[in-house]
Amino acid sequence: MSDSPNVRGGDTGATAEAPAFPAEARARLDEIKTHYPQPKAALIPALHLAQEVWGGWLPEEAILAVANEMGLPAAEVSGVVSFYDLFHAEPVGRHRIRVCTNLSCQLRGADEIMEILRDELAVGEDEVTPDGRCSYTHFECLGSCDTAPMMMLDDRYEENLTPERVRQILEELD
Amino acid sequence: MPTVTINGRTVEVEAGTNVIEAAKKVGVQIPHYCYHPRLSVVGQCRMCLVQVDGHPKLQAGCSMTVQKDGMDIRTDVPEVREAQRAMMEFLLINHPLDCSICDQAGECGLQDYAFKHGQAFSRFRYEEKRTYPGRERIPLGPSVLLNMNRCIQCTRCVRFTREISETGALGFFNRGSRTEIGTFPGQSLDDDLAGNVVDVCPVGALTSTRFRFAERVWYLDKEPSICTGCEVGCNITLEHRKGKIRRYKPRANPSVNDYWMCDYGRSTHERYGTLPRLGSPRGAGVTDGSWKQALDAVHRALTSRSTDGAVAFLGSAHLTTEEAFLLAKLADHVGSPHRAVVVDQGPERSIPRPDGPITGTEAGPNRRGAELAGLASREGGFSAQDLLEGAAAANCAVLVVADSDFGAGAHDPATVERLRKAGTLIVLGWADTPLAEAADIALPVATHAEQEGTFVNLEHRLQHFERAFPAPGQARPGIEVLADLLSRFDRDWTDEVTAAQVFDRIAGELAPFEGLKLAHLPPEGVRLEVTTSEAH
Amino acid sequence: MATFEPVLSRNVGHPEVLEVAGYKKRGGYAGLAKALGMEPDAVIEEVKKSGLRGRGGAGFPCGMKWGFIPKQSDMPKYIVCNADESEPGTFKDRVLIEHDPQQLIEGCIIAGWAVGAETTYIYIRGEYTHGARVLEAAIRDAYDNGILGSSVMGKGFRHDMYVHRGAGAYICGEETGLLESLEGKRGQPRVKPPFPAIVGAFGAPTVINNVETLCCVPHILERGADWFKGIGTDERNTGPKLYAISGHVERPGTYELPIGVPFSELLATAGGMLGGAELKAYIPGGASAGLLGPAHIDLPLDFDQVAKAGSMLGSAAVMVMDQSVCLVRAVMRLSKFFAHESCGQCTPCREGTNWMKILLTRLERGEGSSADIRVLGEICEMIAGNSLCALGDAAAGPVRSLVANFSDEIEQHVEAGCCPYEHRRYFTASGASAQPTHSN
Fold first, then answer.
1. Is the pLDDT of residue C89 over 50?
2. Which pLDDT value is given to residue C422?
3. What is the average per-residue pLDDT within B478-482?
């Protein structure tokens, strides 16, 4: 979701040798490809898989691996990655926190939750803590407005947040 | 075919024609950026919004097609004018005011539509324009430079690399107002069709590295012409100023190059400026540098040799059909069977077209025209190979090479030495090459930009081009030089010959050209009917 | 107020329904059994008769949409369930997915039977990881129990179903944006026509319906169109509706009520205003809907009446704001959302949403002028109707309503040179919830 361009145009160096897609992921991807009449439809599932494999984000080599696996130009795959908020082309913490700050959550204190995270983690939004443990960002509506304020921690929702609860959650992170 | 009415004017169009194309037929120009006749329709820029009877909202003219009778379109109503003004305002709020340093000025889609459809003031006064820091002058490849701040996100360039050149080298990245185009890190836009993205870009976001800061386009004179890089014969617009060619741009011809040309072709005019030129006639017996003396000397060489001394005529694929015809006439007058056309086998140049690509492998535009005009090698005559690689030249009393820059051989000492072995070496051409230097008599001739003529491409399509500017110094069009020379053999000829006149002779004598007249050739050219023996 | 007998949410609190056996025990799959005994066209007619309108936001008549699918096609046909639920304030589909997935599966298969589609893709937003897992498990169980596969309920009709996770983009809730994303591309909406019923997923005829819409279908088949029509305000606004209410109410949550319930009744069902505060404004249908004020406290929340009031029912995501709220700040936050989510293809939305965000940010800080308010209103007119898809219109919605109905609040910012509202704290220093402060 970062704003910084993740592309540099104009290097005339040769394309990097495409890194391999890991075997278990490839097996899962091959099964997923059977769900669709066109193999390209498996691209976003492939990127989800790759992001898991590469520790929560998609470095250039992951994009090249997926491009190679899917038979697509790297520029196209990179374009897809940069379109979606759940794909990260920059490093993230081992744990990723996404705080909803849209209207219903803003009406119940979401901005204060962000403040607490900033204070407790001592890094800014979209930055990774020095020990690599955690990064946080604000996010758009997560579909949990009745439990506002809330956040997404990795792949689960933490709802009905209070400052205490947030501090507790952070403490329990490994 | 269904009819459609646009601004009160009704016209019949093929079913499936979109409103932009239909409007052209009644002289109505609907502004557009993202639409391009050869690219997929995306309906993004929203400049082409028109009012369609029966639809409450304005519709995009690029995606709205005429299927049956009765469609009623208006572009001259306040709603459409307001939409156009609004789209222009939106595009200009983040666009940098770079006009004074931007190459696109004078041929810029934003400038043109801002004047026609926009407003003269800005309401975006206290805000910061959206910029892409660090992306103001990024080489995407050897021939294309990107200034992302100027981009209006029309996506033509990306669609070109996906749908036409099929390299997929360009992509879109990010979302919303941060959308940008670019290449993947470590990769570049370096295929031979890359320069076309500069043509399709309506603004100065993508510019040509070789044309950067070279010339203000409103100083350029423009002449339709043909590229001489290979046998495809892409139609071009030859843009020049003060006798110097500044730029080639492709000119649309769906029968040849569609809307495109290759980067190599774009660079071919630079040769005219890099090689030294033959300025005046020179050589043995040419004491005062005059054409009269020079042509008299050539005439003497051709007629005074012993009757069994071979005279050979070597043309090139850069000769116009008319030049080749007159050279062949000269060979006829001298009674020589030795004639040939030389052309280098160049790299493959392929231009995509809807019905399949056109691919040229010869490094000159008119081998076929030259051969059809009478320079094809014949039984008992020396071939190009005999002359260039064999010992044939040594057996020639006179060797006339009609192009001093016929190919790599003209600069190769070994080849030049072989040709030099002819008794008298006469060279015509625009370039002062090692071959011209070695010649006994060298005659300066116009480049294709400096004369009128025709080329016949690899599909036997005859294409006509006119003179863009006069030849410098004492150089003259090849047909004038050859006709002047012929006049010394046959009083029917004078040096005041025109290409049309020569072409009339060609049409009168050679079957494939029968019935054609230069003045009446259609703009897309004409496919000649050639017999199987002639066609190769 | 009479309690309404839940239909769509009747199985919430009964986790056994996640499996086919438990679902059937509570009456599930009766609708599908009935449908499979009818002609496909008869099923479409029944849905048309019911007056079911799409619950994703557009409110398009569902039966009519199914009727657009060509009867004959060389290509396979598809059902796509739009589970992208990303409209701010909306969380009702999540309830249905996580608590009654078999109901959704049943609706999809009936749709497939009706139009001749043998495959359903459920496009679920990437953030709903739990929901995706629940669905995948439910689907596996459905296959194991002969509900999905080569012969649905033994009737020889084949139906396959797959979950496809999105990756975080609101625009993928737009039907053609969804299709692009499903096909492995950036979720950028397509030019229409052609419409998805003719050229949809993978170039084939496709029905795209919202989760809640599809969940209504088994009940329409089981209990009949007349029963469905009997609920609601009139024949154009029928059936039970899930209302997701959030913001400054005591009990935010999803409530199932007949469509057209007055806002005051919904508010009371949700426990009234939080802390007894006074209502300032509410949004009836998600971020794309315009703000309504206390004058509309009794407005029946159905498609037509909310539209007449100058807003839209949309996804029935009701966001309630009390007097402490700075409406300029609220709309500014929504404009940030739209600017962030704009796909960037078309000029008016790409540039216009960004411009509105910048203007509202300045106005909220008190750095704007009255002229800016006028420009803001005009930008809305420049976007609406001109964008490639409805996101442009949606972005203009709340801003337009702010300028039209609450411009005095913006003027206050201009005059004060800053935001005149105290920055409200929701939590005390110790972390307890703070009492809402009521501003000047």
1. yes
2. 86
3. 97
Sheet holding B424-429, edge to edge: B282-283, B441-444, B424-429, B396-401, B310-316, B338-342
Q: In the sheet that C206-210 helps form, which strands lie side by side, from edge to edge?
A: C160-165, C117-124, C77-83, C206-210
Using the predicted structure, report yes or no on whether residue C369 has a pLDDT greater than 90. Answer: yes
Question: Which structural domain, as residue segments, surrounds residue B426?
Answer: 274-499
Residues of A in contact with C88 (CB under 8 A): 102-104, 140-141, 145
Single-letter residue type at B356: G
Q: Does the distance separating the beta carbons of A44 and C184 come in below 8 Å?
A: yes
Looking at the domain assignment, is residue C439 inside a domain? no
Residue B251 within a domain: no
Shared-domain flag, residues B109 and B67: no
pLDDT per residue over C99-156, tens digit each? 999 999 999 999 999 999 999 999 999 999 999 999 999 999 999 999 999 999 999 9
pLDDT exceeds cutoff 70 at C178: yes
> Could you tell me where the DSSP H helices lie in C122-199?
129-144, 175-182
**Structural domain for C101, as ranges:** 15-229
Range A23-83 has CATH code 1.10.3470? no
Domain locations in chain A? 23-83, 95-172
Cross-chain CB nearest to A82 (options B142, B167, B174)? B174
Closest CB to B176: pick one of C339, C385, C387. C339
Q: Would the CB atoms of C88 and A35 count as touching at under 8 Å? A: no
Domain count, chain B: 3
C198 Cβ contact partners less than 8 Å away, ≥ 6 residues apart:
C68, C70, C205
Asked whether residue C202 is domain-assigned, the answer is: yes
pLDDT (tens digit, 9 = 90+) per residue, B239-264? 999 999 999 999 999 999 999 999 99
Query: Does residue C136 share a domain with residue C202?
Result: yes
Which among B309, B372, B319 is positioned nearest to B342, based on CA atoms? B319
Could you read off the pLDDT of B285-326 as tens digits, one per residue?
A: 888 889 999 999 999 999 986 666 899 999 999 999 999 999
ipTM of the complex: 0.94
Cβ distance A10 to B174 less than 8 Å, yes or no, reads no
One domain for residues C216 and C256: no
Q: For residues C157 and C211, state if they share a domain.
A: yes
In 3D space, the residue among A105, A110, A164, A112 whose CA is nearest the CA of residue C248 turns out to be: A105
Q: Tell me which of B187, B189, B197 to substitute to probe the interface with A (most A C-beta atoms closer than 10 Å).
A: B187
Q: Is the pLDDT of residue A76 over 80?
A: yes
CATH for the stretch A95-172? 3.40.30.10
Nearest-angstrom CA–CA distance, B224 and C191:
36
Cα torsion at C180, C182, C187, C191 (round to 10°)?
Answer: 20
Question: Where residue B195 sits, what CATH number does that domain have?
Answer: 3.30.70.20
What is the pLDDT of chain B when averaged over all its residues?
95
Q: Is B163 helix (H, G, I), strand (E, B) or coil?
A: helix
